[in-house]
Structures are given as C-alpha cells and as structure tokens.
Amino acid sequence: MKLILVGIASALLLSIIVGLSRVERGPTPADRMLAAQLFGTTGVAILLLLAEAMETPALRDVALVFALLAAMAAVAFVKRAWHPGPGESEKGERP
User: DSSP H helical segments within 26-85, as ranges?
Assistant: First the structure.
C-alpha cells in the first residue's frame, strides 16, 4: 500500500513539473496564478499521501498550512489585480 501511495505522489509531482511551463509562459497573470494554485493544491495532496505512506502525522499539519497559504495567495492576487469597471464601486457594488 505504501508503494502505491508513493507512486501516486510521484505522478502528482510530475503534474507540478508540467505546470511550471504554464507559469513560465503565461500568457496572462491570471494564468500564472491558476498554475500557482495548482502547485498549492497538488502540494497538499502530495503531503497528505506521504503522511499516510510514511505514517508521519506532522506532514498533515504542514499540508494544512500550505492549504491556508494557497487560499491567502489567491485572495491577495484578486485584491491586487481586480480593478472596478465603469459604474462599480471599490466594493463591487453597483449604484
């Protein structure tokens, strides 16, 4: 069972490596941010699989921290990149 979990974690690691091309090429900052979210989500999955395979509960805590950091990074990106359109206030409300 441990070998299967490590194999799945290795396959997920390959998906992160493929995602690096999207971060490098873009073409927009939103594409790059979505690729970074892929890294966060896949990284959490890898850590959870390794925590189960190696019977190390501390990796579950690290995975939780990574999940929170990925969510905060997405919020920070949206707050920085979003610009209100015509007729919208800063809070996204229409008059």
Answer: 29-54, 58-81
Report pLDDT digits (tens) over 59-69. Answer: 999 999 999 99
**Contact present, 36 and 23 (Cβ < 8 Å):** yes
Question: Could you tell me the end-to-end alpha-carbon distance of the chain, in angstroms, rounded to an integer?
Answer: 58
Check: CB of residue 49 under 8 Å from CB of residue 11: no
pLDDT at 42 over 70: yes
* CB-neighbour burial class of residue 44 (10 A; exposed 0-12, middle 13-18, buried 19+): buried
Q: Give the span between the Cα atoms of 40 and 71, in whole angstroms.
A: 9
Residue where the block lists tokens 């999940």: 67
Per-residue b or e along 49-60, where b marks 16 or more CB atoms closer than 10 Å to that residue's CB = bbbbbeeeeebe
